[in-house]
Amino acid sequence: MSKFGDLVNSEIPILIDFYSDWDEAQEDQAIATLKEVALSLGDKAKVIKIDIDKNETLAKALRIKSNPTFIIYKSSEMKWRQSGEQDATSLIDMVLQFV
User: Fold this and answer.
1) SS3 at position 97
2) Predicted model pTM
3) Buried-exposed string 41-75: b where 16+ CB fall within 10 A, e elsewhere
4) DSSP E strand boundaries for 1-99
């Protein structure tokens, strides 16, 4: 978890998609959405995916119960959290609130 602490200790917003690889078609759409978000935000924010099946301890610590769950961190502080599918425009608008 110390690596996670280092990851979220950033002056720029970090959008994290906590996901599970159980539905390939859904995952392909999610990747496309996150790529669009990352391209739109450029160096204003970081966009990261974390597989909850491969990071069970972290998922439990953060009480991730739904797939996907999106969280925005800035300076080690959770700023926003939402479970369920999100479109690129909504995610971009949300991250820009914390730039």
Assistant:
1) coil
2) 0.91
3) beeebbbeebebeebeeebeebebeebbbbbbbbe
4) 14-19, 46-51, 69-74, 77-83
What are the residue ranges spanned by the domains of the chain? 2-96
CATH architecture of 2-96: 3-Layer(aba) Sandwich (3.40)
Q: Mean of the pLDDT values across residues 48-68?
A: 93
Tally Cβ neighbours within 10 Å of residue 13: 23
| Cβ–Cβ < 8 Å for 86, 66 | no
Gap between the Cα atoms of 59 and 62, Å rounded? 5
